[in-house]
Sequence to fold (154 residues):
Amino acid sequence: MTRLAVFIATVGYCGYFPIAPGTVGSAAGLVVYLLVWWAHSRPLESALIAVVFAAGAWAGTHAERYFGGIDPGPVVIDEVLGMLITLAFIPVGWSAAVAGFFIFRVFDVVKPYPANRLERLHGGLGVMADDAMAAVYANISLRLLIWLLPSWIH
Fold:
């Protein structure tokens, strides 16, 4: 059970990347988003967000025990969720997806209120909730950027 939880929490061990594992996890999130983009299905997008959140909360709780700390670095399933929420329900091309990637990374690092409070939630719920909130901010920011610069980013 612990092996499966660590595999999920680290997104197939992407979280073990020695430099910037959160950025690598976000890049993995872009790959997962590619499946959503290809399917053009809002119900699939919603279901995938819910499944990743639930699986991440479960796996994050086990991974915290395994790694012996709160929101350990190798746990990057929250970054995958963050990318899915950042790009959720926005019909984007590659330029907007890449912009969303960078916007999410900023909000994930800065963690404006209430994201900084949500990371205090117990176990995997806290692991996932703070990144979900940061991604909501990134989604709104990306929408604003697309509205302000429609010819540059789409």
